[in-house]
Amino acid sequence: MSLLTLKNVSKIYGELKALDDVSIHVDRGEWIAIMGPSGSGKSTMMNIIGCMDKPTMGEVLMDGVDISKESSKKLTEIRRDKIGLIFQQFHMVNYLTAVENVMVSQYYHSMPEEAEALEALSRVGLRDRARHLPSQLSGGEQQRVCVARALINHPELILADEPTGNLDEANENIVLDLFSQLHEEGTTLIVVTHDTEVAKAAQRVIVLDHGRVAMETNNAHAGSAKASSFL
Amino acid sequence: MFLRMITASLLRRRSRMLVALLSIAIGATILSGLVTIYYDVPRQMGAQFRNYGANMILLPGDGATLTTDAAENALAVFARDQLIGAAPYRYVRLDMVLRQQSFMAAGTDFEQIQKTSPYFSVEGRYPENEREVLVGKDIADTIGVKLKSVMELTYRPTSAASLGAARDDTPTPGATLSGGAEGWNGGMVYVSVRLDGEGYIETVEVDASNQTNEIGGLCAQELFTSQFVGKKIPVTLGSDVDTIAGATMTSAAVVEAVNGASNIASVANKTSNFTVVGILDTGGDEESYVFISLEDMAALTGEAGGLDVMELSVSAAQDELEQYASAIQDLNSGVIPRLVKRVTRSETAVLSKLQALVFLVTAVVLLLTMICVSTTMMAVISERRKEIGLRKALGASDNGIRTEFLGEALLLGVLGGVLGAILGFAFAQLVSVNVFGSSITFQPLLLPVTILVSMAVTGVSCLLPIQRAVEIDPALVLKGE
Ligand SMILES: Nc1ncnc2c1ncn2[C@@H]1O[C@H](COP(=O)(O)OP(=O)(O)OP(=O)(O)O)[C@@H](O)[C@H]1O
Ligand SMILES: [Mg+2]
Fold first, then answer.
1. Are A130 and A121 contacting, i.e. CB atoms less than 8 angstroms apart?
2. CB–CB contact B2 A107 (8 Å)
3. Using a CB-CB distance cutoff of 8 angstroms, which residues of chain B are in contact with residue A53?
4. What is the A89 CA–ligand 2 centroid distance (Å)?
5. What's the CA-to-centroid distance between A161 and ligand 2, angstroms?
6. What ipTM, to 2 d.p.?
7. CATH number of the CATH domain containing B219
């Protein structure tokens, strides 16, 4: 069942084609890894899928709706309702506590509920750090808060741009473990990574190069494999 | 959550927000201070202006005098706290017979004079006790009196008209009449006229001792007075009586005194000794008057007598004064109110200029505050670009961002307004005490007004910065370092 389809999508900055005629297809519940050298257009693609940017050419169908020509207001709504975002640099509101940061996401989505936010923090193992400010948390802890924030509204699609890029191995594994839990719950995951170990956890790997899809491989074992098997 | 977010933003980012708060509070302080002064200036300056003398006078209608009752009725028109003083004046001519001096004396109330004419400068003190006199500097110089000198003041009844009594149309035959009139250089000429049984003048005696001896004095001699004998009052100068060459004024005065002479026998000359307790220096006409209390004047003249004029010092602007004036007019008590235009006009002009100045300064401060707040907010927003991008990525709509920052701004506005209202009052108080030397009362209404204005100013100054925030592209700011 199709969740997302990119048809001949290009993103052109002046002379530079950050994305060049990319067509991919993602089914509901799939776990995709996107790899490629620096500057190959991974983040550009994620921004387009994440409704934060529009393609220069081509169609982006999400749930059968072409989002490539929507107004930015509409894009904000789609992002809010369907997508959870995780960034390499964590990005938290630095004057709000961990639990408040999670609640911000609830606030924009529907109604902030502290109990639910605390539960999400428990899930990423940070129940006892709920009242700490970002500056009082380690990088790994911050990223886990961001995972909790991304999953709090039960999005259909989680987009993570190098979520483990700034993490040590232990924290990387915790995050991967959370991803595979989400995957089992049926959430669609698209994860940009440089790390082959992270890529291996996904069902399918798409490699970009110079804005084009250079390679697509299926990981035979993936989907059933638990991230914990990487521990 | 909204409140939690913006209060957290204010509380946990204290130093940054303090700068913004400070600029708002300073703006609000100066604004509320200036507004307070703006509204207080008329009161303050009004009180100041009252130092420059009366701004309204009450005159008797139809040449009569002002009765105490009529004056009191008129004074009842004024709001108690606006009537600063009301000084009565009754003018009478008094003589110092031995020194051959005659001058105008004003009977008045010295307590009130000090209120209506605070600028009077008195060497010595104002009279407080019976038979004390305040002498104008001019007179003091001319007749050479000093503090503690004793002046023998004499009241001589003059013509009936100036006594305020109705003159008999035909002088009673066989009576002896007395009268007086102003001759050369303000000196009084007094006459005593005896009529025969048919009403013809039998004798005229003239006291011209206040005139120059050599010339004016001729009018007291028989060559002049004999001309009156056998004539009937009124006598015509030029046909009945010939003018003494070189003593035109005195001749005319004698004729006037004879024609005005009355037979109020009871009015005899009265003399009392007064002690000079003060010399008045005003730089104005007042210097050629002597001032005694109304009571002393009544005793000296033998009658209470009405007032010739009443000077009022009213703490009110011109239009309010005009309202009072027409209210007095409406009483129909024969009292004629007049504004001292010279005073009220200049007061009004100075006031409106001062208010315009304060208004201008207020406008400039308002503008500066807005620029300052706007710049601060601009800095705040650019510092929080990442956060704003993140909020948008998390699904904040443009209006959501607007509401949040406007909320923050308005909260700052409220805090700044409260601070500003309090500090502004202190500021206004400081200015008032130092510049005007009087304190101001706190206007409770100013607190909500300052808060509202401060909110509005902050809100408006934040519009541009907030628009900047809305324009932030999350994809750009969230991208790597
Ligand atoms: N806003 C922009 N304006 C101009 N060029 C851009 C812009 N955003 C990205 N690019 C260019 O597009 C190309 C793709 O950038 P992108 O950020 O997608 O690379 P990436 O694959 O995510 O790289 P990395 O692994 O370093 O994050 C790069 O050459 C980049 O310089
Ligand atoms: Mg990238």
1. yes
2. yes
3. 475
4. 11
5. 7
6. 0.90
7. 3.90.1010
Chain A window 123-182: which residues touch B at a Cβ cutoff of 8 Å? 133, 149
Res A140 pLDDT > 80: yes
Q: Among B237-241, B284-288, B411-415, B442-446, name the one with the lowest average pLDDT.
A: B442-446
Q: Which of A16, A47, A192 to mutate for ligand 1's pocket (most ligand atoms within 8 Å of CB)?
A: A16
B475 vs A112: CB contact, 8 Å cut-off? no
pLDDT, position B136: 93
Tokens of B250: 């005195």
Say how far apart CA B17 and CA B341 lie, in whole Å. Answer: 55
CA of A16 to the centre of ligand 1 (A): 10
- Please say whether the dihedral angle defined by the alpha carbons of residues B377, B380, B386 and B390, taken in this order, is positive or negative: negative
Per-residue model confidence as pLDDT tens digits over A152-162: 999 999 999 99
- Please list every residue in chain A whose beta carbon sits closer than 8 Å to the beta carbon of residue B9: 95
Q: Which of B21-25, B97-101, B205-209, B247-251 has the lowest mean pLDDT?
A: B97-101
Last residue of a domain, one of B222, B237, B263: B263
Q: Is A50 in the pocket of ligand 1 (CB under 6 A)?
A: no
**Contact between B391 and A95 using a beta-carbon 8 Å cutoff:** no
Of B294, B322, B339, the one marking the end of a domain is B339
pLDDT at A114: 93
What are B139-166's pLDDT values in tens digits?
999 888 889 989 888 887 654 444 434 3
Tell me the nearest-neighbour CA distance from B394 into chain A, angstroms: 6
In angstroms, the CA B84 to CA B81 distance is 7
What is the CATH T-level fold of the domain A30-51+71-230, as seen in this structure?
A: Rossmann fold (3.40.50)
Domain boundaries, chain A: 30-51+71-230
A chain contacts of residue B392, beta-carbon cutoff 8 Å: 76
Q: Could you tell me the residue range of the domain that residue B227 belongs to?
A: 160-263
